[in-house]
Amino acid sequence: MAERIIFHVDANSAFLSWSAAYRVKVLGESLDLREVPSVVAGDKASRHSIILAKSTPAKKYGIKTGEPLFQALEKCPDLVVIPPDYGLYVEASRHFVEVLRQFSPQVEQYSIDEAWVDMTGTQRLYGSPRLAAEQMRERIWKELGFTVNVGISTNKLLAKMAGDFEKPNKVHTLFPEEVESKMWPLPVRDLFLVGGATEKKLNALGIYTIGDLANAELSVLRKKLGKQGETIWHFANGRNADMVTPEAAENKGYGNSITTAEDVTTRAVAHRVLLSLCETVAMRMRKDGKSGSCVAIHLRTSDFHHLSHQKQLSGATNITTELFSAACQVFDEVWDGVMPLRQLGVQVTRLAKEPYQQYDLFSDMSPVQYEKKLRLDETVDSLRDKFGEDIIRRAKFSEGTQEHMAGGLSKHRRTGVTKPVPEEF
Question: Residue 70 and residue 63: Cα distance in Å, rounded?
């Protein structure tokens, strides 16, 4: 039986690269954003404007992904700042994955800009794994105009770790026999699934490198970190049996959140924000043919304190007003009306493929009324899909600047590409 060969393919600084490639290849601009200090960031006037992607020259100024835009501008006043274009990114991602599928049908997209490819048994077509990776890298550059890193190994974990080695535009291997020399010397925070909080716990145990973790006592890790301790111990030793699964896992819940431009200090404003979130959540649920029977609220105060609460419904629904009503009830139970809020989120779980309701003598809505509401929502979805989200909005949003459909993906990404993108891109 042939040894498994897994590639992890990651677009380098994807959002910035895709914007730059579009501007050069399609719009014919002479300035390549990848060659100057540049970033992709949101609205400068918004406090949640952060760096989403940066060029290599920007990195030399110490600019980091995730930092506030104003800090980046302090480091480099001449920084070129462009807004994100999610419609373009979705289209670029689609073409990216299409190229990967031409090398192997076994492609699992991990995020918008990275995927695993099972290349097992393809040596007769493309030669050695490294040669195949170089062909893949070169083809993406020539056809799509952006660079990628390709990590090669025998499992998904090691392939991803290899892909995160030196960037950009590189091919790296990390086979099991290379783990000790290539992976063990790295800081433990570089290991997949080890975040800042876990790193601190590991450091407290005298574990600073991946090698330290790989050689630690498993019983100690289980005691201090539970199941996660065992998982990352296996990862540190290069063990991962997950298969490349081309089909995405089914959603277990639908949710959206938004960081508001200003602190929310009144119940009325909070309810409008919740309605805007329920609009996008319910729309996605109806599109996927799903309903949910549990509504949860997640809040973050201005001092970053987190609050959450949930409510079990009498049935499963995807009607916007039903989810909104439940969200408001949960919100009113958990918020004291005093603490300023900077972030609000809505999540619907316990999914079902079909709506169902339990009706009784005291029910506020009859089956006929429920069906009418569902048909109305579906009609609104159809209009928004055809003419854009702003074709129809609720009266609550007739005044003020609050978005009537907020949270999650940007409007451009929810409604599709805002400009034509040629097939060659």
Answer: 11
| Token digits of residue 320 | 């916007």
Phi, psi of 77 (to 5 degrees): -60, -25
Q: Roughly how many angstroms between the first and final C-alpha of the chain, as a whole number? A: 38
* Cβ contact 112:14 at 8 Å: yes
Q: Note if the bond before 355 is cis, omega within 30 degrees.
A: no
pTM of the model: 0.63
d(C-alpha 94, C-alpha 90), whole Å: 6
CA distance 40 to 34: 11
Q: How far, in whole angstroms, is CA 109 from its chain's centroid?
A: 12
Are 22 and 91 in contact by the 8 Å Cβ rule? The answer is no
Name residues whose C-beta falls within 8 Å of residue 290's C-beta, 6 or more positions apart in sequence.
251, 254, 318, 351, 352, 353
Is 149 strand, coil or helix? Answer: strand
With beta carbons less than 8 A apart as the criterion, state whether 158 and 174 touch. yes
Distance CA 329, CA 342 (A): 19
Q: Which of 114, 322, 389, 403 is catalytic?
A: 114
Whether 230 is a known active-site residue: answer no
- Residue 295 β-bridge partners: 311, 348
Question: Kindly report the CA angle at 278 between 273 and 281, in degrees rounded to 5?
Answer: 130
pLDDT in tens, the chain (425 residues): 568 999 999 999 999 999 999 999 889 999 999 999 999 987 665 555 789 899 999 999 999 988 889 899 999 999 999 988 877 888 899 899 999 999 999 999 888 899 999 999 999 999 999 999 999 999 999 999 999 999 999 999 999 999 999 989 999 999 999 999 999 999 999 998 898 889 999 999 999 999 999 999 999 999 999 988 999 999 999 998 888 888 655 667 888 888 887 889 999 999 999 999 999 999 989 888 899 999 999 998 887 788 888 999 888 899 999 999 999 999 999 998 888 998 899 999 988 876 655 544 444 556 667 778 888 888 888 887 777 776 777 777 766 666 777 654 444 444 433 333 444 44
CA 193 to chain centre: 15
Alpha helices, DSSP H, located in 289-395: 320-334, 367-387
For residue 3, the 8-state DSSP code is: P
